[in-house]
Each structure stands twice: as structure tokens, then as C-alpha cells.
Amino acid sequence: MTDDSGMSVISDTTLRQNLAATPTLSAWVSANAGSGKTHVLARRVIRLLLRGARPSAILCLTYTKAASAEMSNRIFRTLGEWVRLDDAGLAGRIAELEGREAEPHQLIRARRLFATALETPGGLKIQTIHAFCEAVLHRFPLEANIPGHFSVLDDQKATELLAEARRQLMSTQSFENDPDLAAAVTEALDTGGEAGFDKLLQGLYARRRDYMAFDARARTPQAAEALIRDALGLLPQENEASLVETAWPLDALPVDYIRAVFDFARLGQIIDQGL
Ligand SMILES: Nc1ncnc2c1ncn2[C@@H]1O[C@H](COP(=O)(O)OP(=O)(O)OP(=O)(O)O)[C@@H](O)[C@H]1O
Ligand SMILES: [Mg+2]
Which fold has domain 12-144? Predict the structure, then answer.
């Protein structure tokens, strides 16, 4: 872009983007969607490589797979283009990126970057934070106290396993072997119906760690009741009847009002039925 006098004008945004992409500065970038965050990160990585950083020493973490693919595509697209540019073209691109004229050795390095970044063992690492954490756990299973050959459960597999567990739980055999279980399941079904029971199982699964902690402490029905009372902040003398009494003091109920509402509803019904 140029102004009236023909001077090159660099927008404020580009200046700020260039500052954030300067490898020697630590930067925290927070900006609106589509405003150029990925653009800045990709440029920062390319400038690091241009200054001779080892590709394997660079780690870029994203939240989604789409974002890491996007980062990776942009970097390799730029480096791929550089291989094919002539000296003048490449010098121009580097000058634009670095904000100063390219040095001859930079041109040679710039042309090799595509191959170096691709070929280095362990290469340039651009991945999701989930993939990174999984890789760390695979390398340090002892320290993390997990089995060495674990695999990560995806949502679909988890749903299948949950359905299988439900089938086993509801089998006649497990009910015959465990009358307490049969009684508990029957009560849960009576209270919540089929849908409510599934919701209960899903809820327990989603908060299984909390439930397991509760289960470990609630060894007897009394202990379970004490834990629940504590969690709800109930006083020792409070029970179902006293709670209903406190929440709905009978003498404070607006009985006339409720009766009027019922009458009105009945009137509506009569009208609906064509009087
Ligand atoms: N300084 C710039 N010059 C030219 N194009 C730019 C510049 N900054 C960003 N863009 C372009 O704007 C578009 C959006 O940028 P980018 O994808 O980097 O934004 P983002 O902040 O990462 O978006 P999102 O929030 O969706 O992840 C891209 O096509 C990018 O190439
Ligand atoms: Mg982005």
C-alpha cells in the first residue's frame, strides 16, 4: 500500500503482527476471530526457522485438529513457494517478513527450509494439546502411574462400552447373583423410568471420579446418608417432612389464588371442547 507521496504505508495491524511474530520477543496474542492469529504464529515459526532454529526444537500446540492442520499447511505452503522463487522474488518475501533486506546466506537457507523441516527426524511439531499430552504419557508411563500401552478412548468407543456395561448390569444373571443390585435398579427405574435411568448412568459415568470417591467413603447406608446430608448442608433434625414444611408452609399457601388458576384452566378446557 502507498500514500500520496508514494511512501510505503504499513498498516498498524501489520506492524503489530510483525512485532508479535518477532522470534526474540515473548508475545501473548489475543484477537478477534479471523483477525490473523494463525497468520502471526505461522510467520513466527517461519522466522525462527529462517534464523536457523532446529525444526525439532519448535513445538506448536493448538486446541483443534483443524487448527493444527491449518498451521502446518500455511507454513509448508510458504516454504514450498520459496523453493520455486527466483532470487529477487525470494529476497522480496524475506524482506517483507523480516522487515529488513535479506542477506545472501538467508536465501540459500530459505530454499532448503522446506526439505529440512520435512526431513528432520521428529520434524516440526504442530499438534493438538491432546496429542501432545498423549505423547508425553506414552513416554513417561511410570511417572504418570498408568499402563505403558494405553490407548485413548474416543467418544464413540466410550458410548459402546457404556451400552455393553448397561446390558451386563441389566442381565437376569447379575440380578440373580445380587438381590441388592436388583432392588436398586428396580427403584431407580420406578423413580425415573427408562430415560431417567439412562440419564443416571450417563451422569455417573461423566462424574465417575467423584462417584468413586463417594463410594469409597460411603461404606454403609448410614455413612452414605451422612455424606449426602453434609453435601446438602442439612441439619441433623431435618428430614423430608420438615423440609416440605419449611419450603411450603401450608398456612402461607395462596389457596384462593391457586383455586382461581385451576378454575381458569378448567374454563379454558371447556372452551376448547366447544363449551
Ligand atoms: N497482515 C496480513 N496480511 C494479509 N493477510 C492477512 C494478514 N493477517 C491475516 N491475513 C489473512 O486473513 C485471514 C484470516 O487470518 P487467520 O486465519 O490467521 O486469522 P485467525 O485470527 O487465526 O482466525 P480464527 O480466529 O478463525 O482462527 C487469512 O486468510 C490470513 O491469510
Ligand atoms: Mg486461527
Answer: Rossmann fold (3.40.50)
